[in-house]
Structure formats: structure tokens, C-alpha cells
Amino acid sequence: MIVEVVGGADERPEVRVVDTDDLSKLQLALGQVTDEEADEVLREAGLGRLRDDGTGLLDTAALRAAAEPDADVADWGERFDRMVEQARDRGWVSDDGATLRVHVEGAAGA
């Protein structure tokens, strides 16, 4: 699953969740936007924030709510829970489970 922040209409950045059925990876991909723009649009969408130039923090519940409607596999919820547990085992989930730490990468075509 990829959370993308890309240039949108009128050059206003937008955030979207794509590849929702691929729960083998989770990344935050930034297009041609500044870190400040990405942080602002993530916060406005309620999906998370940038921690630094290489790390983002995504709200677990908000990510699930944004991605699940686009899921095409019957056991998506269970797979999402497994992804979060694997992230927890790696130390990528906050103690309260509210946020997931993810790597920031460039968006495709950026």
C-alpha cells in the first residue's frame, strides 16, 4: 500500500492511498511537493504527518478507513491487521498502536 502526496488541481497537493490490496509493503511517496506541503496535506487529511525528511507517521485507523473501501480482497481486514502486527514486531508502531512509522520515497513519475 502506498500513501502518495502529489501535486493536485491548481497545484494544490493532494493525498491518496493506492495499491490498497498490496499489504506486503507500506510507504509514503512524495511527488514534486515540499516537505512542508506534504506535512500540511497529510495533517489536513487526518492521515498523519512527516517526522523528518526520511520518515512519516501515519494514523493507523485513518489509513485503514481510507484504504478499506478500495480493497478488492475478501480478507483485507485480516491482512491489514497482520501488516500492523508485523510492523509492531519491527518497532514501527507507536506504543498505543495509533501510528505507523513509514519510509518516505519519491512518487512514481516524480
Provide structural commentary.
The structure is a single chain. The relative contact order is 0.23. A hairpin with a 2-residue loop joins strand 4 and strand 5. The mean pLDDT is 91. The protein contains three helices and six strands. With 110 residues, it is an alpha/beta fold.
Main structural class: alpha/beta
Total separate domains: 1
Instruction: Tell me the strand order in the biggest sheet.
Output: 2-1-3-6-5-4
How large is the radius of gyration?
Answer: 13 Å
**What fraction, in percent, of the residue positions are helical?**
25-40%
Q: Number of DSSP helices?
A: 3
Strand content: 25-35%
Major β-sheet annotation: 6 strands, mixed
Low-pLDDT sequence parts: none
Mean pLDDT value:
91
Sequence of secondary-structure elements: EEEHEEHHE
Number of strands: 6
Shape summary: globular
Distance between the termini: 18 Å
Key structural traits:
3 helices; about 30% strand; single chain; globular; six-stranded mixed beta sheet; about 30% helix; alpha/beta; about 110 residues
Helices and strands in order, then pairings?
Elements: E1 2-7, E2 13-18, E3 27-30, H1 35-45, E4 48-52, E5 55-59, H2 60-67, H3 76-89, E6 99-106
Parallel strand pairs: 1-3, 3-6
Antiparallel strand pairs: 1-2, 4-5, 5-6
Summarize the structure.
The protein is 30% helix and 31% strand. With 110 residues, the chain is α/β, with parallel strands linked by helices.
